[in-house]
Amino acid sequence: MRNTKGHAGNRRSHHALEELRFSNCPKCNALHLRHKACNGCGNYKGREVIDVMKKVLKKEKKNEAMKEASKQNTSEKKPEKKEKEASLESLSKK
Ligand SMILES: [Zn+2]
Question: Which of 35, 60, 79, 92 is spaced 20 to 30 Å from 45 by Cα?
Answer without folding.
Answer: 60
